[in-house]
Design a protein that fits this description.
Layout (H helix, E strand, L loop, with lengths): L14 E5 L3 H7 L4 H22 L3 E8 L7 H24 L2 E6 L7 H13 L6 E9 L1 H17 L10 H7 L10 E4 L18 E4 L9 H13 L12
Parallel strand pairs: 1-2, 1-5, 2-4, 3-4, 5-6
The structure holds farnesyl diphosphate (FPP).
Farnesyl diphosphate binds next to α1, α2, β2 and α3.
Length: about 240
């Protein structure tokens, strides 16, 4: 089935988050180095970015590197950072052509200087773009983010800038790295693994989770459109009954 033309434009997910998994297994299956899997993964990144922009999905967040990924072999970490820099250099044109704003979340201070600089440059150059926001989660971990939020709120209460009674869900939202983004509506994870792996835990409280066996380097825009189509077939109740909706 062809999915794109069956997508209801009135009911698009406002925010899609993707755990791009399976690069290593894709490479192993072909007898190639893991780094080749990551390289091929960049093609899938372009597919989903352009695919979302094409149908007017406003927010896309990609889990590009987790806080736990620093524990991978040094060479693999180096490859991933090199790919980040080369992709940013190469894809700035795609971002500008499609009016896409680049954003990044995570402990960005931990990135190598070159990656941080390149990232900042693309963020600055695309800051005024309005069609879509592409967020890269880099050196990101949701628990780390929540600890950071708790520390900031605690500091404000300690300094009497905020009453404990005034703390609401909105207060937490406004201190997250994703404070400018809506909640995640649809989370996609490739490669058959069915886990959230410390990704956007607060932001995904009501997200629909979609798992596909497709390995990330093989993921194409029709796979994205299939996920969105299936998301639209689900009933999102947010704790209510079917009859109340
Ligand atoms: C998971 O596959 C993927 C990653 C840890 C990194 C994702 C990075 C890219 C797709 C390339 C660069 C990204 C950007 C945004 C330019 P895995 O290595 O965990 O696969 P495995 O589970 O099969 O070993």
């Amino acid at each position: 089935m062809e999915y794109k033309s069956h997508i209801n434009k009135e009911n698009l997910p406002q925010h899609i988050a993707i755990i791009m998994d399976g690069n290593g297994r894709w490479a192993k299956k072909q007898g190639l180095l893991r780094s080749v899997g990551h390289e091929k993964g960049t093609k899938a990144v372009r597919e989903v970015v352009e695919g979302c922009a094409e149908i007017d999905v406003k927010n896309l967040t990609l889990y590009a590197f987790s806080t736990e990924n620093w524990n991978r072999p040094k060479l693999e970490v180096k490859t991933l950072m090199r790919l980040l820099v080369s992709s940013l250099k190469k894809e700035i044109k795609t971002l500008l052509d499609n009016n896409i704003k680049l954003n990044a979340i995570g402990c960005l201070d931990n990135l190598p200087t070159k990656a941080r600089k390149e990232l900042q440059e693309v963020i600055d150059k695309t800051a005024h773009n309005k069609h879509m926001t592409l967020t890269l989660a880099l050196s990101y971990g949701s628990r780390e983010e929540l600890v950071h939020v708790i520390k900031e709120i605690a500091e404000k209460t300690k300094n009497n800038h905020l009453d404990i009674e005034e703390i609401t869900e909105k207060t937490v939202d406004s201190h997250l790295y994703t404070s400018d983004l809506p909640d995640v509506d649809l989370m996609i994870r490739t490669s058959g693994e069915q886990r959230i792996s410390n990704f956007l835990l607060w932001q995904m409280a009501y997200a629909e989770l979609y798992f596909t066996p497709v390995l990330w380097p093989d993921f194409r825009r029709e796979d994205l459109y299939e996920a969105i189509f299936k998301y639209q077939k689900r009933e999102r109740r947010f704790g209510k009954t079917s009859e109340q909706l």
